[in-house]
From TrEMBL:
Stretches of the chain forming a coiled coil according to its record: 123-161
Keyword Repeat: yes
Keyword Coiled coil attached: yes
Official protein name in the record: EFHD2 protein
EF-hand domain segment(s): 18-53, 54-89
Length: 167
């Protein structure tokens, strides 16, 4: 399909803008090739720098766990999925991803309760926005009807006016 522009703040609403900025900084820091991806070698280096070196297989498994497009490297979006899973408690304690999330010092846990709350608020807000949008459309249609109605009446009045003149 067509490549949608990925909007982190739009898709990862459970994280604050500051957290997303920190994650992006971290991602760029280890994207040595500056190609917008962290590949196996870059991830290997990252885990060594974070003080949790992984085996080759361990690294492969880390990527596999969030590699949605199966290109064997991490896009920024897939990188964010690591922190989403960490925040949701979906990572195995002994997994490389868990170590990465923990050692990266990006604190997703403090936002925990608030994050979940914000997430649901964001959802509720999206629903409200949708219904507000529908209401606006309805209001517009009503307005159009009213205008058409008024126009009809004006025309009728004008006709009447004409007929009084032509007598």
């Amino acid at each position: 399909g067509g490549r949608r522009v990925f909007s982190p703040a739009g898709e990862f609403r459970e994280f604050s803008r500051r957290q997303l900025r920190d994650m992006e900084r971290l991602f760029r820091q280890y994207d040595a090739g500056k190609d917008g991806f962290i590949d196996l070698m870059e991830l290997k280096l990252m885990m060594e720098k974070l003080g949790a070196p992984q085996t080759h297989l361990g690294l492969k498994n880390m990527i596999k766990e969030v590699d949605e497009d199966l290109d064997s490297k991490l896009s920024f979006r897939e990188f964010l999925l690591i922190f989403r899973k960490a925040a949701a408690g979906e990572l195995q304690e002994d997994s490389g991803l868990h170590a990465l999330a923990r050692l990266s010092e990006i604190d997703v846990s403090t936002e925990g309760v608030k994050g979940a709350k914000n997430f649901f608020e964001a959802k509720a807000q999206a629903i409200n926005e949708a219904s507000r949008f529908e209401e606006e459309i309805k209001a517009e249609q009503e307005e159009k009807k009213k205008q058409a109605e008024e126009l009809k009446q004006r025309k009728a009045a004008f006709k009447e006016l004409q007929s009084t003149f032509t007598q």
